[in-house]
Write a sequence for this structure.
C-alpha cells in the first residue's frame, strides 16, 4: 500500500448518509483532543489531510480517506463535555450506525493519551471493542511530551490495565517526531494481510 496515494473521499454526519462498506476499513478512534487528526496527518505524511484544531471536538463527522483499495475512517472524538444534548444524540446515532452497518473493519486504532489514565469514556470504548470482537490496537499518543521517567511509569500503568488485554498491541506514538508511525503502518499491513 502506497500511503502517498491517499485522497480524501467524503464526510458523513448521520448514519443514513454512510455508504455501503465495499472496501477493507482501518479506523482511527479516540476521545476529543487525543491528537487523532495530527496522527493521521503524520501517518500519511501530509500536513493538512485531516483538519487539526486546538479546540476539542472539532471532528464531528465520519471522514473517509482512500488509499490503494483501502478505506481509512476518522471517527469523531467522544467525550467532549461542551456539546449540546442534540449534538451528543447525533454523535451516538452516527457511531451506532457506523458499527452496526456490517463494515469490513480490519483494524481499529484506539488512541489514548499516554500522559493520563484512560477516561471513563475511553474505558467504555475499550469494553465495546473487546465485547464486539473488533481487532484493535491501542495507540498511546503524545509520548514525546513525557520525560524518560514519566514515560516508563505511564508505560507500566498501561501494561497493567486490564481494559487493554484484548488489544493486539500497544504502540507509543508521536505526531510531532514520528515515533511509532512505522509500527502503526506495519500493524495496518498485517491486518490487511489477514482474511476478512
Amino acid at each position: 500500500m502506497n500511503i502517498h496515494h491517499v485522497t480524501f473521499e467524503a464526510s458523513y454526519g448521520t448514519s443514513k448518509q454512510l455508504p455501503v462498506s465495499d472496501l477493507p476499513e482501518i479506523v482511527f478512534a479516540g476521545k476529543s483532543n487525543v491528537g487523532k487528526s495530527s496522527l493521521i496527518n503524520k501517518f500519511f505524511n501530509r500536513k493538512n489531510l485531516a483538519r487539526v484544531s486546538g479546540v476539542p471536538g472539532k471532528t464531528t463527522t465520519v471522514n473517509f480517506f482512500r488509499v490503494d483499495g483501502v478505506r481509512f475512517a476518522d471517527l469523531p472524538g467522544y467525550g467532549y463535555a461542551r456539546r449540546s444534548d442534540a449534538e451528543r444524540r447525533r454523535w451516538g446515532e452516527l457511531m451506532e450506525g457506523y458499527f452496526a452497518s456490517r463494515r469490513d473493519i480490519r483494524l481499529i486504532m484506539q488512541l489514548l493519551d499516554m500522559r493520563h489514565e484512560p477516561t471513563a469514556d475511553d474505558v467504555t470504548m475499550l469494553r465495546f471493542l473487546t465485547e464486539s470482537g473488533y481487532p484493535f490496537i491501542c495507540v498511546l499518543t503524545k509520548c514525546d511530551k513525557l520525560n524518560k521517567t514519566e514515560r516508563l511509569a505511564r508505560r507500566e500503568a498501561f501494561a497493567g490495565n486490564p481494559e487493554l488485554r484484548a488489544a493486539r498491541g500497544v504502540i507509543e506514538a508521536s505526531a510531532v517526531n514520528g515515533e511509532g508511525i512505522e509500527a502503526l503502518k506495519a500493524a495496518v499491513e498485517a491486518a490487511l494481510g489477514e482474511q476478512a
